[in-house]
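hiii so my PI (J.) wants the whole complex modelled not just the main chain, which honestly fair. so below is everything: four entries, each one labled with what it is. i double checked the lines twice but i was tired so who knows lol
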Amino acid sequence: MKITLDSLQVLEAIDRCGSFALAAEALHRVPSALTYTVSKLESQLSITIFDRTGHRAKLTAVGHLVVSEGRKLLANAEQLERRIHLHKTGYEEQLLISYDQLVPFDNLIFLLDKFYQKFPNIDVKLSAEVLGGCWDSLLSGRATIAIGVSDDPPIRDDLSVIPLGSIDFVFVVSRKHALATKKQQLTNDDIMTHRIIAVADSTRGFIPSRSTGILSEQVVFTVNSFNEKIQALLAGLGIGYLPLSYAKEYIDSGELLIKNVPPLCTPAALGVAWRPSLLGKAGNWMIKQLKKQTCLERIHTIEN
Amino acid sequence: MKITLDSLQVLEAIDRCGSFALAAEALHRVPSALTYTVSKLESQLSITIFDRTGHRAKLTAVGHLVVSEGRKLLANAEQLERRIHLHKTGYEEQLLISYDQLVPFDNLIFLLDKFYQKFPNIDVKLSAEVLGGCWDSLLSGRATIAIGVSDDPPIRDDLSVIPLGSIDFVFVVSRKHALATKKQQLTNDDIMTHRIIAVADSTRGFIPSRSTGILSEQVVFTVNSFNEKIQALLAGLGIGYLPLSYAKEYIDSGELLIKNVPPLCTPAALGVAWRPSLLGKAGNWMIKQLKKQTCLERIHTIEN
DNA sequence: CTTCATAGGTCAAAATATTTGAATAAAAGG
DNA sequence: CCTTTTATTCAAATATTTTGACCTATGAAG
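here's the output for the full assembly
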């Protein structure tokens, strides 16, 4: 075995940080130690991982292969360490939860409040994802529970999924927007000729990314969260779908107007997915809560 | 990262060889070096991997977890090294082919003869598998091409499958066997009350093993290859299915008799499966040959 | 065109980590 | 009860990795 997990960590850090110097700092080592590790790996495998002709090191083609596959290997190794810890204590070191931004945050807070009452000493790491990001987080090991996964589950061992409920979308425009005054249903042509605001898929390479409710050849302004999308919509920078729960207050205040449109996207059926082998007592409790009807209802109900 | 690939290799070797001493020999190290590596890993993870109360070291529960998951990690690491080599040269270091014992060996020899004419310098490692063993070898990385996979492909990235043809089975008994003289079709009762000879599934834990053509509550004599099965059938130790191609010569000589039976197993539809990312020029040539009609026909045709 | 900050590489010394083999102890087998 | 086998311990020998001072080249700024 020529590869070591340590050398993969070094490569990963250099790629992530962008330079030997920054990676060295991140790893609490000295730059020349990284040079040593990288050169050693390169000579072991007889490949060049970094192109040193330029001023700063740049990954070669085979270097990209090593880094991207190496990340998967590291993720698996980390998961093994988590499972070992689980085996010892029955509890997870840290509960890694990802959620789709479609899931109203209030409901998560409600759930986490109950969680902390029961497990006051367990760390929770919550990460917001968009579209495929939930699946990606689960498969890459960034999360062990994903709340609000949509579409087909990637078929794989060690993955459970249950339905959670569905989210209704409304197509909105700002009252300042050119389309605000149009009385009839918007046509595809109306939509095509105006900029659409989209939230970027948050996948990080474990599964292909995707987009939703966008017509081909449309001008797209991509943002990173629903809050940014709302701001952009309010400012009249473009048009697009919003979950009803997010849009409600602005519709009530008249700042956003609901428009009828040809169906571009259907109500999203969301699910909860998790990795059974990576869950301990805390994670299983959380799944039990998510299975309860009350919990489901809260999540997709909008108070009036 | 507390785990190292080296420590996993050490654990793997100890588990495989059955003792520190034998593993040390296999790894060309001294036993105390293994003690050191194992103790270090144990203290890093704060677990005990081996139960040392007895004379020889025995894996604990968590030790089993580490070894079995560690094997997968090691297999992935080896695959990465193969891909790196492939990226450098375009050729595989070694072509790892597994085949189901159902596939007549002559046809493989014919294929490999053509292969060596074209690629005289590429090592080939051929391994015989039974039932799920072909898939298992492919998923575990013991093989990159599997000839004669059957049933559903395990759905997974980086896996291609094409049909190869099908194999006809005949149910046979020795002329010495008690059932040899029975004229009519054998009943389920006839079969149940006699020992059946089965070939053991050769999976090694990457997928669940399975069996075929066996009635529940039947007395089973399990052997490891079709040749052993033939010997056992000839000796009248039991009854069972054989691929027509294997059985032909014994049927012609009268040593085995074909019996009509209620349908227990259907003709097996076989396929070829491979891992595209692990194939180079040699492997792709092999796949091209396997796709050719001539090759398919040879494989399931029996010369008269 | 020069200057200069920064990036990364080189090298020998120092710090760590691993391997070795002899000695020890404990269990299994005869 | 003796022998063989198995694993561990320990200090010395060896190998690997880290460090920090020094070096060179690039690319940006003046």
